[in-house]
Amino acid sequence: MVAQAFFVGVFGLAAIGFGVAVFRTASMVRSALALLFSQAAVGCMFLAMQAEFLGVLQIMMMATEMSIMAIFMVMFMMDPGGLGGMDMSHQKRFSIGAGVSAAVVAIAVALLSDWGPAAEQVVDAEAQTRALGMELLGRSMMIFETAGITILTAMIAATAVAIPVQNLSSKDDKEASE
Amino acid sequence: MTMILILALVTGAILFGIGVYGALSQTNLVMIMMGVELMLAGAMVNLVAFWRFLHPEAYSGQMFVLVVMTVMALEMAVGFGVAIARFRAKGSVEMEEAEDLKG
User: Fold this and answer.
1) Which pLDDT score, from 0 to 100, does residue A25 have?
2) Three-class DSSP category at A89
3) Which terminus of chain B, N or C, has less C-beta within 10 A?
């Protein structure tokens, strides 16, 4: 239990530290890498809380996702290396107030609520994965299938939005004039 | 055990707060998406902690985490689609310049 508390605390601190670093650095590549480390630390917290499948999934997904994000940052940002020292933020005071308020309210709820007795033990990783599979293909099958359809819809929508718009009417006019 | 639960919930709350700050303060679309990712990460930490320490027998808790991970991936896919369209049209993904839809 002491080891579990230690690792949850250490990885939690790492997740928070890298999360702060995301918005503290001027280099966009460093921002993306800091977010990757923050999300990996969250995955390690899952492992420390004995949710092995979710922990491994989180680390794998976020490693891929943040690598893609780093490539997009380099493509889209005016100063991806942060060498110009540009400040790309606005309404800082309001944002800090909103962020601190949200965190304080959530911490207050966490500290003041009566959570009741906490579970001491969970089943091992193999039994957990089996039970999660049974849940996905049993009681939660509709949610699981809906998530799959939503991913497909989002993939098509994202591709449709990203491809260049062709002005078909002017193309027809050009062909007619020729 | 309750102490670890509270430790995880406080971590999730702080991650959520950092995400709120990032989503509101950044002017670049990709950086705003990073803020949203941190908010969702905070929510996931809370969900896993609730599953582990309050209801380890109910696997719908883990199912909920999978749904949040799906939402994170979708947010990235659609966000980058919008970013590409915006960059192609205006040459920038700075959201302070995206006032075209204002009435």
Assistant:
1) 84
2) strand
3) C
Contact call for B20 and A150, based on CB within 8 A: no
Q: Which of residues 90-149 of A touch B (CB under 8 A)?
A: 90-92, 94-96, 98-100, 102-104, 106-107, 110-111, 115-123, 128, 131-132, 134-136, 139-140, 143-144, 147
Structure tokens at A90: 């606005």
> Which chain A residues have a beta carbon less than 8 Å from that of B51?
51
Task: Give residue-wise pLDDT tens across range A92-129.
Answer: 899 999 999 999 999 999 999 988 888 888 888 899 99
Q: What domains are defined for chain B?
A: 1-92 (1.10.287.3510)
Helices B60-90 + A125-136 axis angle, to 10: 70
CA distances from residue A48 to A3, A15, A107, A139 in whole angstroms, order as listed: 9, 13, 21, 27
- Test A140 with B60 for CB contact under 8 angstroms: yes
Of A48, A5, A105, nearest in space to B48 by CA: A48
Q: Could you tell me the mean pLDDT of each successive run of 10 residues in chain B, 103 residues long?
A: 89 96 89 92 95 90 91 89 85 76 62
pTM: 0.89
